[in-house]
Amino acid sequence: MKAFPQTFYWGGATAANQVEGAFLEDGKGLSTSDVQPHGVFGDVVERVPGDTGLKDIAIDFYHRYPDDIALFAEMGFNCLRVSIAWTRIFPNGDDAEPNEAGLAFYDTLFDEMAKHHITPLVTLSHYEMPWALVKNYGGWGNRKVIGFFERYARTVFERYKGKVKLWLTFNEINMSLHAPMTGVGLPSDSSKAEVYQAIHHQLVASALAVKACHEIVPEGKIGNMLLGGLMYPLSCKPDDVFKTLQENRGWQFFGDVQARGAYPGYMLRYFRDNGFALEITDADRDALKSTIDFISFSYYMTGCVTADDALNQKARGNILNMVPNPHLESSEWGWQIDPLGLRTLLNVLWDRYQKPLFIVENGLGAKDKVEADGSINDDYRISYLNDHLVQAREAIEDGVELMGFTSWGPIDLVSASKAELSKRYGFIYVDRHDDGTGTLARSKKKSFDWYKEVIATNGASLKA
Ligand code: BG6
Predict the structure, then answer these.
(1) What single-letter DSSP state applies at residue 334?
(2) What span, in angstroms and rounded, lies between the C-alpha atoms of 145 and 332?
(3) How far apart are alpha carbons 261 and 255 in whole angstroms?
(4) Which residues are catalytic?
(5) 3 state SS of 115
(6) Which of 115, 120, 144, 109 is nearest to 130 (CA)?
(7) Which residues of the chain have pLDDT under 70?
(8) Is the C-beta atom of 365 inside 6 A of ligand 1?
(9) The pLDDT value given to residue 317
(10) Does residue 134 belong to any structural domain of this protein?
(11) Does residue 366 lie in a domain region?
(12) Residue 188's domain spans which residues?
């Protein structure tokens, strides 16, 4: 009988800037996310005292986390992915000392999880960095930021080594190519060469964090985090197939460096062909040799690639420039739904790296309707998650080593791409809306009990 391993991590995934709120409380500094009130692709808007953005309060997880964690525990979560806001620990990034109030917040958060036997899976940097490091140093374009990040990583490893054993370095590290401010703190009109130099610094910082984690938390495990942007050729024309290989290498490159410890030849050729003279020192090459223990990734959709320029078009609302697949349906936000693609991706990653895999984001962003009796019948979400989990189980049958599944947004949160609240992912509804109104009250959707049963039966209740 097909089954998930008994040790499987079941849970949900969140990010500090999308749930916590309290954006300037207890000494927290401004982050890049705080100055991007319109989402990860949005313009930077310098904050002025008194103005508000949706993420400033978000869903107020900073104050309500004990109740939210109790609800996650009720669903049977044995794992919860959260991120630490770097700006709670080092408000400006280059501060002489860490901010004790920020460190104390995550202590109590991890203690609360422990009370419910929930294992924390912690992202060091999820789509945010101290804004002061961007203003004063030029973001990841500046080599000095590597040292600031390493100090931050070492500080949190030391502080939480008894409480946190599972770590991730940078969320969707390949997104910097599409959203440079969000990924590496560079303006959107930066040249490709500048972006790749900043990415190089971030890859070195990621490897130094891996090294530090192995030293400080020897019994822990640390992974990378990729946006699993699997692409298919639009046709079987050899040109389309080759271009697809190159497009997939666009994201695989990050995994190749992080899992294998060196730049792949195809990337060095790409830099040569484009005249990018990156500064990569011997010390950098040495640092990159500290490789991750497991590969984690997000999976929402697949897309197609064509070498025919006339056919190239942007998929509606899509975060990547992907040609729509004529065989797939789309979500309300134009993200194409492809459960079998998850099985393909898991196999591709396993074949390529032979390292344990962890699906740390997957879910359906949709508009939910609250009925007169307060119920929310999100059958579309149940069906999306059911079908993806069935394919994850198939991949396990294929021989893939899969550590766990944390669905994106187990509780409604502020979306990343456009900073909306109407795009909901949760099993738990939050009464807050795009215009900022709402009581912030929580209520269970139909999917709450569905996921609870999936976890309780270790997947046996899924409908194949
Ligand atoms: C991933 C991010 O890109 O997708 C999350 O890691 C994000 O932060 C999620 O929220 C879903 O995207 P969106 O734009 O629907 O929130």
Answers:
(1) S
(2) 39
(3) 9
(4) 172, 361
(5) helix
(6) 144
(7) 48-51, 313-321
(8) yes
(9) 47
(10) yes
(11) yes
(12) 9-456
- CA separation for the pair 44, 182 (Å, rounded): 10
Q: Is there an atom of ligand 1 within 6 Å of 119 CB?
A: no
- Find all residues with CB under 8 Å of 407, minimum gap 6, and list them: 11, 12, 13, 361, 362, 363, 385, 425, 427, 451
Query: Which amino acid residue places its CA nearest to atom 10 of ligand 1?
Result: 416
Residues 6+ away with beta carbon under 8 Å from 223: 166, 167, 168, 169, 292, 293, 294, 295, 296, 358
Domain annotation covers residue 168: yes
Q: How many domains does the chain have?
A: 1
361 lines ligand 1 (CB under 6 A): yes
Nearest CA to ligand 1 atom 7: 416
287-296 pLDDT per residue, tens: 999 999 999 9
HSE, side-chain direction, 13 A CA sphere, residue 433: 7
Q: Ligand 1 center to residue 297 CA distance, Å?
A: 12
The two tokens of residue 358 are: 């962890």
Contacts of 430 (CB under 8 A, 6+ apart): 59, 411, 412, 413, 421, 438, 440, 441, 442
Distance, CA 286 to ligand 1 centroid (Å)?
Answer: 33
Amino acid at site 15: A
Task: Report which ligand 1 atom has the smallest distance to the Cα of 40.
Answer: 14
**Ligand 1: does its nearest atom lie under 6 Å from the Cβ of 127?**
yes
Report how far ligand 1's centroid is from the alpha carbon of 410 (Å). Answer: 13
- Please check whether residue 464 lies inside any domain of the structure: no
**So what's the pLDDT on residue 134?**
98
Quote the pTM value: 0.98
From the CB of 223, is ligand 1 less than 6 Å away? no
- CATH code where residue 295 lies: 3.20.20.80
- Supply the residue whose CA is at minimum distance from atom 9 of ligand 1: 416
Question: What separation in Å is there between the alpha carbon of 273 and the centre of ligand 1?
Answer: 33
Residue nearest to atom 16 of ligand 1 (CA): 415
Distance CA 128, CA 146 (A): 15
Residue 188 near residue 131 (C-beta atoms within 8 A): no
Q: Are 425 and 32 in contact (CB under 8 A)?
A: no
The one-letter amino acid code at 274 reads N
Query: 272: CA distance to ligand 1 center in Å?
Result: 33
Residue 416 near ligand 1, beta carbon < 6 Å: yes
The string of pLDDT tens digits covering residues 154-173 is 999 999 999 999 999 999 99
Ligand 1 atom closest to the CA of 175, numbered from 1: 3
Contact status, residue 287 vs residue 205, Cβ threshold 8 Å: no
